Predict the structure of AAA+ ATPase domain-containing protein.
Amino acid sequence: MAKFFKGLAAAGAWACFDEFNRIDLEVLSVVAQQVLDIQRAIAARLTLFTFEGTDLPLKWSAWCAITMNPGYAGRTELPDNLKALFRSVAMMVPDYAMIAEIILYSYGYLAARPAAKKIVACYKLCSEQLSSQDHYDYGMRAVMAVLRAAGNLKRTCAPPPESAAAMTPEQQETEELTLILRSIVDVNLCKFLSHDVPLFQGIVSDLFPGVSLPRTDYGPLADALRSSCASANLQPTEYFMLKATQLYEMVLVRHGLMLVGQPFSGKTTAYRTLAAALTLVADNAAAAAAAAAAGGAAASGGESSPHAKQVRTSTFVINPKAVTMGQLYGQNDPASHEWTDGVLAVLFRRCAADPSPERKWLVLDGPVDAIWIENMNTVLDDNKKLCLNSGEIIAMSPPMNLIFEVGDLAVASPATVSRCGMVYLEPQQLGTAPLLASWLATTPSHWGNVPSIAAAGSNLTGGLGVGSAAAAGVLGMGSSLMLGAGGVRRSMSGAMAGGASTSTLGGMGLGGELLSGVKARLAALYEGLVAPTIRFVRREVRECAPSLDGNLATSWMRLVSALLMPVLGTPEQYRKCSQEGRTMAMVDAVGLMSLVWSAGCTAATQEGRSLVDSFIRRALSGTLAGLETPSGHTYGLTDAPSVPLLSPAATPPETGTLYDFMYDVSAGSWVPWSALAASAPPIPSDARFSAILVPTPDTAAVTFLLQTAINGKYPFLLVGPTGTGKSVTITRCLLQLDGELFAPPNIIGFSGQTSANATQALVDAKLDKRRRGTYGPSGGRRGVVFVDDLNMPQREVYGAQPPIELLRQLQDHGGWYGRDNVFRNIQDVLLVTAMGPPGGGRDPVTNRFTRHFATLCLPEATRSTLAHIFGTIQGWFLRSRGFPDAVVHLKDAVIAATLDVYSAAISQLLPTPTKSHYTFNLRDCSRVIQGMQAQDADALHKSVLLMRPLIGGGGGGGGGGGGEANGGGGSSSSYVSDGELVCAHLRLWVHEVLRIFYDRLVEVSEQQWLLNLLRDLVQKHFAVRLDELLAHLARTDDQPQQAAEGDGGAAAEASSPRRGGHGGGGDIISPDTVRRCLFGDYMTDTDGEGNPRPYTEIPSPFAAVTRLEDLQADYNGMGG
């Protein structure tokens, strides 16, 4: 700002600072002082004055004005000392009708006054009657867009002068009102939600009675759109063609526009297909012109259409949130004061300097917020200039357009919305039949032909709640797939709305028989079972991470392809399976298994999985009458299909749930996951605790599905609560990949402070340059990037997560921009991610990113599974470390008691604002077991000998398991009985529970509650009284040899635990005495051979303090 003011003062110029209150408050205070200095110098009539340490000449004509929109997002309130320097002028709402009338006259309209009034009235009625949406705008800029469209139509569609001269005034007015109506419809219809369309149609029909719009003939452009769809394996449905043409109309009247809509609504595919179609029209026209010039065939007669003259179109895509503001627009180096251009500045300058008439579309694909979009205001308004902080101003050339691709405009300011044209796309309007057709088109040709999917599309889109006219275009609308590096690229697919009518393809096929041919069977299975299940999951099941119907559908298709291609991918394989008569059974079984582990595996709880299992089984058996759902929906299924949905050989087992089995395509049978888990190798004797993975049915399923995803080349997302083994399972699977085919996995852990630049650096560090602009893993191998804690990065002020946006750019566009502002194509890199459910510092991840992933949710493990996991680990440790059988036999009881403590803690010790650390998870159980494994058999023996003088000879105080052996030796003997070992082992368990759970408690009443719980559990699982087990803790440090029998009566009286209290009334163990229960590895010296010191019980706090003081003295003496 100081540079501006210096120039104004020296030149005596005027300046208007637009949107002045976007400057930070700290800067505004400095600006106020600068303006005051200039005003005082002018008032004093000085010709030379000192400004910011510089002597400047002053011309008294210098003056500045500011404009601002108060109350917008990203704006600040002007400080009082700055307000006092300017005179406030309030701008009133302009007379839209008068402005519109004058502009229409300038375009040659004779009926300008009634037309202007109708335009203004239309917007007024829309603002009153239509719903309120973030992307709706009815201001002056919206009126101007209609007027520009009306001017274009007047030039291109108006009748020739001789025909217009023969018209009566009434005919001329009707002709002009028709053009005005078309302008209103073309500019506004594309942004309305489906439920607002009938209201809008009612408004315009009332304003323009008797005026009907003829169907627009796009001529060669429509044919080019269909050709572009065919070349990209897209389905040119009516809805998709409508949105593509609406985007084309918007490009003609707005240089800045936004594609708004949720994932699977077709935003990316719409502009890509339109750009390809415009290029195709231009190429065809150029070829026809060249042929005509060479004396060949005449140019196509379609050139009479105003849409036949097109130019080639290029797109340049940037994710504005994947880079910093400085990397986007440019920044000054604070050390060298050199200006460095940003990605957008480089591309904008290149496009603006290009003299060719070709269209250039700068696509900014990312969240729109007030942080970066406000810098585009001068580009989006009538100035059409990009102003950089370096002072450079780049004018936008006529062939350029700015296209913003966003999911929503929840945090965009009205100033931004009003500057852009809007094209809104709704996934709810899309069916999944074209998605299915596009996928089947990518499968091998020897799988047969696809039946008439379009004929059944009405069943897939039934119940959408749209008008009949819209429903006619909904038939499988715009669902599209594009083949990319990661397999099948989902561009559009639809939400399966509930309430569809009974399927016609179902499991019956077109003729009431089971369809033959792999493609026909998959199509029938999808409509008859998969689509209803997706609708069921959407309505009845709580998901761990919100999914999209199109995402569930594509997950099913990918899994089916990944499972069938290895066994049916070649004609020889298909022929062999067909000769054996197991092809259809295999297809049905794989389709069912893929359904369970795609649409059915997003349930957050075991109860949700049970609901899905019950629904699928009832759907297969035709017994839906007893199915109770909260919404009372049938989901398009009949009670008794005339033909079974599956062939008999593909029927899953009746026992267990569908989640308990997998279909082995090689054996042709259903196999329980537990069989795979049982076949895993034993735990190595030298394994580290943190690296141990106990195979369970859940881990077997995760490993199999992850390996399938890697082989199928599609991204994978694992979601589950903390402590369910997500990271360990994925890491182990990745480390077992074939080193000849795969580079070492790149494992990245996200945190709250992870930045996009750091993420990009970690990925780029493992890539080699393959050719110019293309990078990939070394040696031409494939690479896997594992991102753990995906949802940990902290959100920005307006909700964006830059590291997530960077990875989304990699998924969407196959690369990102380097520090040199050159796009880097990244090949053969697959993303595998894991995260916990949102909450506790974890934020929800945008569905524009998760749409790419096959999502698998791991619900909380059942108690039996946890007992198996921890019991296996504890049993391995006790046996491999040589513990006696009496201690080994305690394994199951120790695990059961630990799980009881954990269950009670999560139900009773709930977090509050003052106790936010009361968050318990399975890692707490793991820490208890890990703490117990810090003591080996020798340490346990030493611990008994160390505590024998305090407890008494022969292991007194031990009940339950070993009392009969206690007489074998006195306190001075080195003999240790099984009873003493058992009691010492139990004291170790009590200590670890106290350290993990008790030390977290802040109130004495809660501490006493936990002690009472331990009394119950020790008595229940070990037949020992806790007060007897820990009776030595009640003695003072100077009475180690006091006999235990003096406490016997109190211990017996305390055998019936009471809730509450503070250890009184006979309870020996209380919050005061339990602090004396200590274990550690510092009571003995090291053996000099590097072996760990024994983890033993400490007789008393006095002994611990004495030992630590001795160690401190020894350490201090070492420096001498």
Notes: The longest helix spans residues 267-293.
